């Protein structure tokens, strides 16, 4: 037995000092790259700060004190000086719509400050005119001026623009402005005319055509009424244009430090297109797709997986119970504080899925081992979800399923207790406190309940993890805006919306890194900086744990690194709402506009439109959950068409 003691001692020494591998005679343990010269925040509680990080073949070799990590330095190792900047793990997108982010990136920017300049209707008109004047050939060829992101809550007029105001932009070309929530849009007179909407047109099921005193449409369209117009305007998108949109989305989100993105609701044609792009063109980042569980169960069962193929995978299914809190379509358990004009005082929103659909979807997911993430904004929607998960758990037994609550804007404290008891992972939306905190305080729920929007304090008091998301393109996927809002909860006016729900910077960073990695069953490979994990890294201009918390939104993403390779560097690829031709000089957005123009020319072709609208309006639930739902249904409808050449 004593002859084994040297071997045991050697093994113990190796375990105690794994960095000694760098002393071997081969270069197998030498790093490809070593970063030093700035703070490194690991998100590992037992060693939160490090001085250096080593990477080889896309995997972290070592992270820790400088003298230990430099033991991995070999003759070919690239030494990179952070120059005082801060390294953190790559951000994991807890809930967004990477496909539709691309359309956000390729449209006129109607967002309010700070993401845009549109805070009154004259500015909205000016931005649309400037968009058209900057590219007259495109707009003339397309016969369309499309803008995205206006928010009536942030307009000085505190209302939507009207058809007359968009007619002031153009009476010769259809003009369509998409609301930031995606639940509404405004059309000019020509766009209404091309959609066949007149004073005699009845409201479609699940939609409203707003009207003036004379009964004529005023241009504002809700839910499926908006789909009627945008369906015709965007019905000409071909596969090449949709590929360009997807690429634009991945590039934009990578510019904000995301190395893993989510497509939070898709139908099979869109999921298949993304998989095709990944296989044929490659992706710079990982993408997790959640197809609609009410419409794509067979597809989910066939494709859901925990392993990426070509950096894309189907992670599970998406269920949507209600709508938008800022748009008054979230299902509450009590009336809204100051409901929209024209509705009864007891108005509490409504569900877009029935109780039977919710219970059946959750039961199906539990029975088949499919992760389900559920959009539930109002207390009434959470009551439905909690009951369904409770019933499914009793039926199928406890297991590590990690069902996800998406948004959870209006919650009671007893509902947080229930989610904790049922092991539901909350993916919350504290960025709402910045974008719509004042609106919630004054209009939707009132000053008391507004303080409990996205109640991160209640969640942490119970020891629960949570993730913090952007839901782009409903909001802009600005990671530092998410961080700032999660920490400070300051509204646009400077008010603190829920001071008891503010968290410290490290907690907020965990909610963007290691905790959403756990949400996706990826905590073993992502979300923190530790040996053996992927070298998914972000370099920030400043240390968020040192800077004044009120200045967090001034930090910029300097570089995004996916598995050791730089995929975004500030100044090399601009990701904000600016469209640029591809590197090979081609312009896929011009092609997208040309196909829209051809679709416009085919308005008299009943075969084409009849194939778009039933898929869009009949199959989709009547209340869109977000802009991605509205627009992805249109793209899905077009991708589902039989092969019909749209271009000469």
What do you see in this structure?
By secondary structure, the protein is an alpha/beta fold. It is built from 24 helices and 23 strands. The strands form five sheets. A six-stranded mixed β-sheet has the order 7-8-9-10-12-11. Strand 22 (557-562) and strand 23 (565-569) form a beta hairpin.
Low-confidence stretches: 1-27, 572-625, 641-648
Q: Label the overall shape.
A: globular
| Mean pLDDT score | 84
Tally of alpha and pi helices:
24
Sketch the major β-sheet: 6 strands, mixed
Q: What class would the helix/strand composition place it in? A: alpha/beta
Measured as a percent range, the helix fraction is 25-40%
Major sheet: arrangement of strands: 7-8-9-10-12-11
- How much of the polypeptide forms β-strand, as a percent range? 15-25%
How many runs of DSSP E, i.e. beta strands? 23
Compute the gyration radius: what is it? 25 Å
Q: Alpha-carbon distance between the termini?
A: 83 Å
Layout: helices, strands, pairs:
Layout: H1 5-16, E1 33-41, E2 49-56, E3 59-64, H2 66-69, E4 78-81, E5 86-89, E6 91-92, H3 98-105, E7 108-109, H4 121-134, H5 136-142, E8 145-150, H6 163-167, E9 175-179, E10 184-187, H7 189-195, E11 207-211, E12 217-223, H8 224-234, H9 239-254, E13 258-266, H10 268-280, E14 286-291, H11 297-303, E15 312-314, E16 317-320, H12 355-367, E17 372-376, H13 379-396, E18 404-407, H14 413-421, E19 425-428, H15 432-435, H16 437-444, H17 446-450, H18 456-461, E20 467-468, H19 479-488, H20 505-510, H21 514-519, E21 537-540, E22 557-562, E23 565-569, H22 588-601, H23 606-618, H24 627-639
Helix pairs in contact: 3-9, 5-22, 7-8, 8-23, 8-24, 9-22, 12-13, 23-24
């Amino acid at each position: 037995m004593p002859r084994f003691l040297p071997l045991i001692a050697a093994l113990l020494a190796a375990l105690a000092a794994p960095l000694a591998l760098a002393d071997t005679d081969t270069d197998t343990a030498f790093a490809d790259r070593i970063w030093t010269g700035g703070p490194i925040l690991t998100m590992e509680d037992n060693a939160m700060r490090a001085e250096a990080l080593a990477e080889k073949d896309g995997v972290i070799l070592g992270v820790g004190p400088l003298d230990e990590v430099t033991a991995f330095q070999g003759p070919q190792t690239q030494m990179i000086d952070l120059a005082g900047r801060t390294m953190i793990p790559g951000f994991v997108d807890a809930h967004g719509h990477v496909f539709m982010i691309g359309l956000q990136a390729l449209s006129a920017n109607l967002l309010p400050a700070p993401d845009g300049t549109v805070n009154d209707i004259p500015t909205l008109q000016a931005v649309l005119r400037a968009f058209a004047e900057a590219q007259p050939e495109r707009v003339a060829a397309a016969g369309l001026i499309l803008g995205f992101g206006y928010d009536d809550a942030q307009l000085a007029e505190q209302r939507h623009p009207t058809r007359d105001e968009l007619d002031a932009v153009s009476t010769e070309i259809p003009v369509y402005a998409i609301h930031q929530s995606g639940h509404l849009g405004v059309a000019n007179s020509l766009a209404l005319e091309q959609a066949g909407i007149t004073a005699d047109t009845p409201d479609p099921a699940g939609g409203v055509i707003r009207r003036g005193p004379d009964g004529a449409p005023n241009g504002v369209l809700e839910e499926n009424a908006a789909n009627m117009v945008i369906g015709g305007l965007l019905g000409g998108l071909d596969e090449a244009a949709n590929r360009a949109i997807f690429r634009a989305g991945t590039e934009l989100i990578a510019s904000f430090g995301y190395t893993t993105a989510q497509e939070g609701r898709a139908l099979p044609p869109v999921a298949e297109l993304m998989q095709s792009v990944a296989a044929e063109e490659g992706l710079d980042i990982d993408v997790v797709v959640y197809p609609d569980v009410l419409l794509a169960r067979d597809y989910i069962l066939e494709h859901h997986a925990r392993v990426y193929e070509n950096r894309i995978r189907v992670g599970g299914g998406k269920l949507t119970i209600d709508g938008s809190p800022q748009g008054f379509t979230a299902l509450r358990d009590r009336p809204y504080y100051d409901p929209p004009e024209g509705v009864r005082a007891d108005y509490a929103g409504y569900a877009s899925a029935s109780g039977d659909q919710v219970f059946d979807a959750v039961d199906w997911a539990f029975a088949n081992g499919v992760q389900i993430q559920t959009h539930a904004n109002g207390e009434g929607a959470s009551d439905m979800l909690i009951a369904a998960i409770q019933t499914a758990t009793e039926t199928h037994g406890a297991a590590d399923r990690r069902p996800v609550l998406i948004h959870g804007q209006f919650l009671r404290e007893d509902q947080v207790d229930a989610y904790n008891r049922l092991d539901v992972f909350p993916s919350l939306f504290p960025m709402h406190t910045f974008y719509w905190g004042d609106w919630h305080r004054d209009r939707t729920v009132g000053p008391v309940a507004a303080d409990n929007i996205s109640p991160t304090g209640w969640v942490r008091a119970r020891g629960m993890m949570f993730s913090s998301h952007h839901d782009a393109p409903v909001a802009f996927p600005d990671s530092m805006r998410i961080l700032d809002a999660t920490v400070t909860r300051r509204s646009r006016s400077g008010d603190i919306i829920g001071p008891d729900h503010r968290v410290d910077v490290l907690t907020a960073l965990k909610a963007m890194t290691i905790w959403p990695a756990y949400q996706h069953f990826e905590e073993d490979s992502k979300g923190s900086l530790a040996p053996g994990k992927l070298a998914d890294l972000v370099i920030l201009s400043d240390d968020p744990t040192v800077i004044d918390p009120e200045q967090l939104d001034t930090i910029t993403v300097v570089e995004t690194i996916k598995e050791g390779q730089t995929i975004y560097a500030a100044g090399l690829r601009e990701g904000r709402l600016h469209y640029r031709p591809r590197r090979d000089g081609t312009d896929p957005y011009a092609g997208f506009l040309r196909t829209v123009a051809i679709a416009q020319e085919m308005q008299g072709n009943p075969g084409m439109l009849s194939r778009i609208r039933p898929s869009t309006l009949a199959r989709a639930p009547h209340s869109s959950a977000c802009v991605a739902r509205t627009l992805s249904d249109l793209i899905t409808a077009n991708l589902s068409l039989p092969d019909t050449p749209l271009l000469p």
